[in-house]
Amino acid sequence: MGAASASASMRAAVKRLSFGKAEERRHAATEVARLARSDERTKRLLPELGVVPPLVSMLADDAGARMAAAEALLELARGTHRNKVHIVKAGLLKKLPRLMDDKDLSRSQHLALLLLSISSLANTDFPLSSSELLPFLVTTLIADDVPADTKLPCLAALRNLSTKLEHVRDVVSSGAVHALLALSLHDEKTSEAALSILGELAATSAAGKKAVEEDETAPRALVDAMTRHENPRCQEHAAYLVMVVLAHGHGSRALRENMRGLGVVQALLEVTLLGSPLAQRRAAKILQWFKDDGQGRMRAHSGPRMEGASLGSDVAGGSGESEDCRNAVDKIVKQSLDRNMKSILRRATASVDLTNVKLLVTSSSSKSLPC
Question: Per the record, which residues fall in region Disordered (predicted)?
Fold first, then answer.
């Protein structure tokens, strides 16, 4: 498309957005989205021609107009700080409470991606109002009928807000901590991102740490994440969150006891043997802390050495359940050895006697660590 043709299209779209009927405005919004995608210069010029205020006002129109306007605003916001500022100043955030009632738009990926783009202003000098953005994000995250593809941009937007200390208190008071814990427990696609944000909130804010400690969902969510051997990152984030929450003094005794009752010690033992190297180190530190019954401080650069035999013995001795511990560790060691032997088999040459190798796996797996 030539420069003259593009200019004519822009002028026509601006005119229809401002003075056209409902159907004309919807088509004009679609044209604005197309123009914004086609050329960076055009994208920067369109807001100067006045397209943003009518697009934002269209978010209060019928469903078709709302979706077209959201898509156009998203295309305008992509990668351009100035356009994002134009959109916020046109009143987008003030319309969010009304948009929550629109099931189609509030659950659409276009609006979620638009809010993610707008949330990046939190990392600039622009005075973004997190109190206007957070209710929509939290409501979307806790809704059962919102797909993961829509929740993930909302999580990213929440993380953008959480990176600035001035927004952290608003994030915590919005109910985001409970929403994130629920996501980590019930939604595998979003659990990794949710646990990561929780770790950052707890590490940077006393209010965030307290909110995690006091949430009744926290013990089960953290123990459940520890058992996800198919997702090492979840285990790493969960272990980090536990270390942060229980890092100072006695930590939360209620949280500690609830986690113990849910089987956190066995879950941590499994992580020390089957988890990623980072998860193993973190799990070992937490196990030592549980063994000491929460005495002392859990420091980021301290903690027990990765010695499975002595660690298993200490934990079992402290709990008085040596037989249960021995059975648990037997199972864990068998899984670990089986994985190691499978790796060896993949690298073995055709001359290897597979029968003897299988016998070796069986005999090795029957040996248990002292408990």
Answer: 298-323
> What's the pLDDT score for residue 356?
41
Quick one: which of 215, 151, 160 has its CA closest to 187? 151
| Neighbour count for residue 234 (Cβ, 10 Å) | 23
Compute the distance between CA of residue 73 and CA of residue 57 in angstroms, rounded to an integer. Answer: 11
* Contact by Cβ (8 Å): 232, 279: yes
In this prediction, residue 338 carries a pLDDT of: 59
CATH 3.20.190.10 fits 1-91, yes or no: no
Q: What is the pLDDT of residue 296?
A: 55
Would you state the pLDDT for residue 14? 87
Contacts of range 89-94, beta carbons closer than 8 Å, 24 or more positions apart: 90/52, 90/53, 90/55, 90/56, 91/53, 91/56, 92/56, 92/59, 92/118, 93/118, 93/129, 93/132, 93/133, 94/132
Give the pLDDT score at 81: 94
Look at residue 334 in the predicted model and tell me its pLDDT: 55
Return d(Cα 39, Cα 62) in angstroms, integer. Answer: 29
- For the chain, state the CA radius of gyration: 27
> Burial code of 239-253, b = ≥16 C-beta within 10 A, e = fewer?
bbbbbbbbbeeebbe
| CA distances from residue 229 to 123, 219, 269, 270, 336 in whole angstroms, order as listed | 35, 18, 12, 9, 12
Positions of the chain with pLDDT under 70: 1-6, 248-251, 293-371
Percent of the chain that is helix, strand, coil (3-state, to 5): 75, 0, 25
3-state secondary structure of 364: helix
| Structure tokens that stand for 295 in this block | 């005495």
**225: enclosing H helix or E strand:** helix 218-226
Residues 6+ apart with CB under 8 A from 358: none
